[in-house]
From TrEMBL, chains A, B:
<dbReference type="InterPro" id="IPR046335">
    <property type="entry name" value="LacI/GalR-like_sensor"/>
</dbReference>
<keyword id="KW-0238">DNA-binding</keyword>
<dbReference type="GO" id="GO:0003700">
    <property type="term" value="F:DNA-binding transcription factor activity"/>
</dbReference>
<protein>
    <submittedName>
        <fullName>LacI family transcriptional regulator</fullName>
    </submittedName>
</protein>
<dbReference type="InterPro" id="IPR028082">
    <property type="entry name" value="Peripla_BP_I"/>
</dbReference>
<dbReference type="GO" id="GO:0000976">
    <property type="term" value="F:transcription cis-regulatory region binding"/>
</dbReference>
<feature type="domain" description="HTH lacI-type">
    <location>
        <begin position="7"/>
        <end position="61"/>
    </location>
</feature>
<dbReference type="InterPro" id="IPR010982">
    <property type="entry name" value="Lambda_DNA-bd_dom_sf"/>
</dbReference>
<keyword id="KW-0805">Transcription regulation</keyword>
<keyword id="KW-0804">Transcription</keyword>
<dbReference type="Pfam" id="PF00356">
    <property type="entry name" value="LacI"/>
</dbReference>
<dbReference type="InterPro" id="IPR000843">
    <property type="entry name" value="HTH_LacI"/>
</dbReference>
<dbReference type="Pfam" id="PF13377">
    <property type="entry name" value="Peripla_BP_3"/>
</dbReference>
<keyword id="KW-0678">Repressor</keyword>
Length: 362, 362
DNA sequence: AATGATGGCGAGAACGTTCTCACATATGAG
DNA sequence: CTCATATGTGAGAACGTTCTCGCCATCATT
């Protein structure tokens, strides 16, 4: 009836006239019990409004059936979708989800990981904010906590990982622009963390075709690399002045940096934005500057956001399978938690070019 | 150095040559300890890579420092923002966040609440999917689990609650349209759950000015009520044919239902959409029908989504303080968890009308 | 008839903390 | 000198489960 306060297994056992061991067996569904006692216990539990205490259970079993996720920012559509994917498979498997934001800052990330580890999550999904140093993640591995990385890799950290094939996707997008006759294509990218030698050196190496360790590059650098490859393949020169570095992961930063490029004498005829946030900032800037798409300027965005399909014109975009990425990551993590012992896997998901109306043929 | 496997307080105590009680005092920061032993313990903990087990701690203290949230769908910008707000204050207070999706279906919601309760969260934030029956929430209250409702109320459930002042907000939006000269204004609303007597009876009662228990109405019905009030105040008749019921909470449903209204002989000159999802569906339909905003049709949307500011034209909208709502809810919940004992509070947050370019003066 | 396997049950130990004691020792007031 | 008070410590009991035993039936097999 009225479940007053918390009833424990001992209360149920007393009410049913059995030992706590038997009540535990019935309620926990492990070991043998006779039909008779089973019914008694179940009835008593019902009457008392018994609800198992997952804490106590986890303490002894060592399993919490909870996944921890460190995302950049739940509010960002990219993470929101990924999280929904993770949530889908977690829920289907009876797992709970402990979620935190890192705001792409490592101190917060470290703190989050520590919190989740203390709460004894069975595994972690992280979008690491620093692809170089990640002591906290290494020590997690050393402790044997299953870990899956999303969107980015960490140098020297051999764990399961799922990401978009950024280089191929960006290359495809930019080649699409080139095929449409564009010769001067601007790229609006975050490029927040410094590559060795800086942007210029990176451009020089990439343009020269020097081998680049691309696995542990930040997504925005990988997409820049795809942009450069497209140029190389199509035999087009890369003008460093067309590489726009927002310098921070915010729409405002992108918005601030776009006008200088657009209003320059040798302005590009097309723009490629490297993620949803850059896309937003760029769109804001274009509205401000009253540039029409695609008459004044063509654009291809990375990551298909809801509004891109009903914007006028429709925005041609490279859609990454965000939901599926989250689902894949969660599935891989659950496999590890179940104890499966593959060597670390990297799942690179293909992105799909969705043609709409934002690219003009020249 | 290398934190091999899990070290317990007993391990640390042994290594430091003190009792577990003393080690616990140092590590847990409760009770007296001498500087000398403190240092020994801390050093031992450091060496062993000791990490407190929050499970064991929670089991005995009865507090998990974890908040549970049942949202409709993390992927939806409304919930994503609210969650970010909740996350902000949770994090600032050292609380973790256990998040689940209900997909606005009560069976899933019940299951979520049960899961979170078993995991012993200190309090719950829920957007109830049924405003009438909610046995699981009542029993939560009976068990003494702090609970805060967001966006919606539940009949007979007296708990803290934060929501937008939907009626006032909708009224303001629609009056804005009327002031611009519009006389036939369509409303695109979800209106998924049946009001007593159905939509027609509701309209009749509202138009007649009958008292309506508006507190426990679904948001979309409240916004419809605001729409009707605006008409009453401005002395305009309400044409039931202008009330578009999507019937389910999806952009597709809205998109499917808009064309019939727009292409009718006595089509409205303006549209009011009652939430972000309806707005999206409506925008899709308008693109399909090739209607220009605001030349062919004016529009005001409820809930300011990112793209509305850089869409051309800018979309005039009623912005609800989503982030602040989440923050307020979390703060109220934390107060309850701390044991503060006000009578149940209802916080109605004002929405702000943001004028952009989607409303034509007639 | 003796043996072993199997179902069913309870006592009590674990899990890793915090908390309640009891018991020191030191300090200061009367 | 005695008593109260504050500071420091350790033994051991909680918290609510699951798990390991050991015990006792029952039943089939030698």
């Amino acid at each position: 009836m009225a479940p007053k306060s918390k009833a424990t297994i001992a209360d149920v056992a007393r009410a049913a006239g059995v030992s706590t061991a038997t009540a535990g067996r019935v309620l926990g569904g492990y070991g043998y019990t006779s039909e008779e006692k089973k019914e008694q216990v179940l009835k008593a539990a019902q009457n008392l409004g018994y609800r198992p205490n997952a804490l106590a259970r986890s303490l002894i079993t060592g399993k919490t059936r909870t996944l921890g996720v460190v995302a950049g920012d739940i509010q960002n559509p990219f993470y929101a979708s990924v999280l929904r994917g993770v949530s889908n498979v977690a829920e289907a498997n009876g797992f709970g989800l402990l979620i935190t934001n890192s705001d792409e800052a490592q101190p917060k990330e470290v703190h989050s990981v520590e919190l989740l580890a203390q709460k004894q999550v069975d595994g972690l999904i992280v979008t690491p904010s620093d692809t170089r140093r990640a002591r906290h993640l290494h020590s997690l591995r050393a402790m044997g906590v299953p870990l899956v990385l999303i969107d980015r890799a960490v140098a020297g950290l051999m764990v399961d990982r799922v990401a978009t094939d950024n280089i191929a996707a960006a290359e495809q997008a930019v080649r699409h622009l080139i095929a449409a006759g564009h010769r001067r294509i601007g790229i609006v990218a975050e490029l927040v963390d410094e590559e060795r030698g800086g942007l210029d050196a990176f451009l020089a190496r990439a343009v020269a075709g020097d081998p680049i360790e691309s696995e542990t590059l930040y997504p925005s650098w990988q997409r820049l690399l795809g942009y450069i490859r497209a140029h190389r393949i199509e035999g087009l020169p890369v003008d460093p002045r067309l590489t726009l570095r927002a310098g921070s992961y915010s729409a405002l930063a992108a918005q601030a940096v776009v006008p200088q490029l657009i209003t320059a004498p040798d302005a590009p005829t097309a723009l490629f934005t490297t993620d949803g946030t850059m896309s937003e900032g760029t769109m804001r800037a274009l509205v401000e500057l009253k540039r029409s798409i695609p008459q004044d300027l063509s654009i291809i965005c990375f990551d298909d956001l809801d509004w891109m399909s009903f914007h006028r014109p429709g925005i041609t975009t490279v859609a990454q399978p965000r939901l599926a990425m989250g689902e894949a990551a969660a599935r891989m993590l659950l496999e590890r938690i179940r104890g499966e012992d593959y060597p670390p896997r990297t799942v690179l998901m293909p992105a799909e070019l969705i043609e709409r109306g934002s690219v003009a043929r020249l």
